[in-house]
Amino acid sequence: MKRINKLIKKIDPNSLRLRLTAGVAAFSILGLGSLASWTGWRMQQILIESHKKNIEEIATQVPHDVEMLSKMVPQEKAISQAIDNFKNNNTLVWIENLDNKVLVKSNTLIKSSNFHENQLFSLRRIPIKPKVVQINNSYFVLCSDSLKIQGKIIGNISVAQDITRDQAMFIAMIQSVGVTSVFVIVIMASAIAFYIQRSLKPLRELSQMTEVISADDLGKAQLYFDKAPTEIKQLAETCNMMLSRLSESWEKERQFVSNVSHELRTPLTIVHGYLQSVLRRQQNLTEIQKEALETAASEAESTISLLQDLLELARADHGNLHFNIENCILNDVVSEVVEMADKYSDRNIIIEAPTYLIEVKADYNRLKQVLLNLIDNAVKYSEANSPITLKLSRQEDEGCIQVCDMGYGIPLQHQSRIFERFYRVDEARNRTGGTGLGLSIVKTLVEGMGGKVSVRSKLSEGSIFTVCLPV
User: Fold this and answer.
1) Residue 350: which domain range?
2) What is the pLDDT of residues 289-310, one digit of tens each?
3) Is residue 244 a part of any domain in this protein?
């Protein structure tokens, strides 16, 4: 039962395989069912037609014999002799007068009981054309005609032939055909499902191949299917062309960002330097001029910082971001970073470290940059009176640092994208003016040092950013 439940859970109702299998199976059932129904109906018609022909011959022959014999013997005797001359197993012939009274009947309905005979005699409006009638569990073909002697109607002749045995054989055959059809449909559905699964294998392979392609692999990624159907090959070629266009577009975008960042940083640095020089000689400046220059200098400094971040990411994209990996004591790095952060912020920063030293492999300066970015992020998105905590720990072959704040928190739907470039959680980040690059740089630097970074957050409870590096 558990296996069946697991199998049902694995079935995707929207999968192409299930839809094709269900569609082909439905059409197979409809086609085979229609064919079986038509075959059964046609065979029954052939069976009944053969009996009808016999009945019509009997209904025509008996009146002719009665009229011939009535010329030689009295009428009652002629009728009796005509009926006696007729002998056919499973067939009952009887003659009624105009008052519907049975004058004479044959004694040849061997396999039918008197009850069936009485039932047949009691029928009214027996059709002129042969017709199948069911009486209890027996089947009869009935036919009647007027009995004329010398042009005068003296009564009716009725003929009933028992076809119960043939009907039973026919029903048994139909049931056998039905069971066989169900078995054939099951076999066909299984074979179709297997064939469709094999046919869709190139599509699954295509999906798996494209799933692992990242932005850095766009220029190298190529999809090849030598033995796949023509349609799959065409789809693979289309995907290759699309990947090539995406690679060119991505490369142009990265080159553009790199060039713009590099070209703008120098003039902005010069402008910022002039603004700082003017502010240092502020004796002749009014308060309004001083405020305007301070604002311009602040914005220039922010823009330079943004351009520096963009250059860092551009170098990482081109593989030009180099790391000086060495053994670092996490306890010392965190202490130094907290001292640096205290100079620029009055926020209370708490260090929770074990008594033993934790040594990791990392770039000392890059690691300080990562921690400063995370502390700056925590300062921006938490209340001014709330503390920030740095927790150090060792987990198997990794040394970990957790930067914890008690800020606004990050909605769950945004946590998977928080490390993307320029991605910002509007509710909080619009209030602080973040560029959306800080966490992206953190992720790039940590992964460049062979580590990993993650976030765990709840709204109104704060966030925990965890950086783990190899020991």
Assistant:
1) 325-470
2) 778 877 887 777 767 767 676 6
3) yes
Q: Are residues 309 and 334 in the same domain?
A: no
Same domain, 30 and 168: yes
Residue type, position 85, single letter: N
- What's the pLDDT at 428? 44
In a domain, 59, yes or no: yes
Domain final residue pick, 301, 317, 333? 317
Amino acid at 421: R
Q: What is the mean pLDDT of the chain?
A: 76
* Closest C-alpha to 279, from 258, 300, 265, 261: 300
Same domain flag for 307 and 329 = no
Phi, psi angle pair for 323, to nearest 5°? -125, 140
What backbone phi and psi angles, to 5 degrees, belong to 253? -65, -45
Is the pLDDT confidence value at 201 over 50? yes
Domain presence at residue 182: no
The pLDDT value given to residue 431: 45
Per-residue confidence at 89, pLDDT binned at 50, 70, 90?
low
Strand partners, 349: 388
Is the confidence at residue 432, as pLDDT, over 60? no
Which residue type, as a one-letter code, is found at position 172? A
Q: Answer whether residue 103 is part of any domain.
A: yes
Spatial separation of the C-alpha atoms in residues 35 and 27, rounded to whole Å: 12
Report the alpha-carbon distance of residue 109 to residue 115 in Å, rounded. Answer: 12
Question: What's the CA gap between 54 and 276, in Å, rounded?
Answer: 122
Name the CA dihedral angle for 308, 309, 312, 314, rounded to a multiple of 10 degrees. -100
